[in-house]
Specification:
The chain is α/β, with parallel strands linked by helices. It has 13 helices and 13 strands. Bound molecules: tryptophan.
């Protein structure tokens, strides 16, 4: 009897020991789990959060956005891992743009990037402290976003995508020396386009040619306005304009029918049916924007961070359109140009 109870006693003790050991192990495991979780949350909370506001989707702006994300990743800010990016696209709607700008300017954002002039204007109009980084904003000064390009002066700096309009117009003249009437088509609600159209008009006149300037208020006007314009001119110049970039297919449908070449101001717009044009590589605009973002995240002072210009521009030639329209491009231009749609 005594012996048996002794044995029982030992078994009970061993069992108790085993159970408590197991319990300890479980507790230990759940401790490491909570620690890992806490660390993860902490990490998440510690990584910078930025916002990006894009006016609309068209190939140029989508390339810019990609350039930003890739450029950040290469600098060690990987989306979702070492940086959080809140991305909003207004789909071309001004009302959306305003609401989204407001939504993006929450406390957690270290800075907000505005792709296009209208997007940047919405952000800068609502935020005077936190950095607003411009991406593909043609004329930041004329758009009222900075005091000057060399010394922005406030919380706004970034990257311009402008090209030399004088060089663009003289290139049109070189390709089509007989063309007398040069159409200029732009969107009147975009400050960037208004400013470029004005300069283009001046440069066309300076060459002794006749500018015919027409604007649209909306992409839905493009078909009608372009039809009229194409019937009056020998060629059409298009500035860096979001409305037209969003509706290149409509424009080109009209100009192809009239056999009028289009000279746009971005690589993507040449690809989308322009004959040729001088423009800045859109993806590079994004990559350069990423560099500014990183500099600012690391503490660079925005007020004296000069506006960056992506590059001086490349000539893009749409081989398919050259053939279709039967236009000969002088070798002096073709030799330094990038061919698209070969
Ligand atoms: N520069 C335009 C703006 O200021 C935006 C833009 C960037 C753009 N790249 C483009 C527009 C290419 C048309 C085509 O709003």
């Amino acid at each position: 009897m005594k012996k048996r109870s002794n044995v029982l006693g030992i078994i009970v003790v061993v069992l108790i020991l085993l159970v408590s050991l197991f319990g300890l192990k479980l507790a230990d495991r759940s401790m490491t789990k909570t620690n890992a979780k806490q660390e993860e949350t902490a990490k998440k909370e510690n990584i910078p959060t930025i916002g990006i506001l894009q006016l609309v989707s068209h190939p140029a702006l989508d390339a810019i956005k990609k350039g930003i994300v890739d450029g950040l990743a290469d600098a060690g800010y990987k989306e979702g891992k070492t940086i959080k990016i809140d991305f909003q696209n207004a789909q071309g709607d001004q009302g959306n743009l305003s609401t989204m700008a407001q939504q993006l300017l929450t406390k957690d954002k270290k800075l907000v990037v505005g792709i296009t002039t209208p997007a940047a204007q919405q952000l800068a109009g609502k935020e005077t402290e936190r950095p607003i980084i411009l991406s593909g904003v043609t004329y930041p000064e004329q758009a009222g976003l900075v005091e000057s390009e060399d010394h922005p002066g406030k919380n706004v700096t970034g990257v311009s995508d402008r090209v030399n309009i004088k060089a663009q117009i003289s290139q049109i003249h070189e390709v089509l020396p007989k063309a007398k009437k040069i159409g200029i088509l732009y969107t009147s609600s975009e400050d960037n386009a208004v400013a470029q159209a004005k300069t283009a008009e001046k440069e066309v006149k300076a060459l002794g040619l006749l500018p015919v300037v027409k604007s649209v208020t909306n992409t839905t006007d493009i078909h009608q306005v372009a039809t009229q314009l194409a019937s009056e001119v020998d060629a059409i110049y298009v500035p860096i304009d979001n409305g037209i970039a969003s509706a290149m297919a409509t424009l080109v449908q009209v100009t192809d029918q009239a056999k009028i070449p289009v000279f746009p101001s971005a690589d993507t717009m040449v690809k989308d049916g322009g004959l040729m044009g001088m423009g800045v590589d859109q993806y590079q605009i994004g990559r350069l924007t990423a560099k500014v973002v990183v500099d600012v995240l690391k503490g660079k002072n925005v007020a004296d961070y000069p506006i960056q210009v992506a590059d001086k521009g490349t000539t893009y030639i749409n081989k398919k359109k050259v053939k279709e329209l039967g236009i000969e491009i002088p070798e002096s231009i073709a030799k330094d140009a990038v061919m698209v749609n070969e």
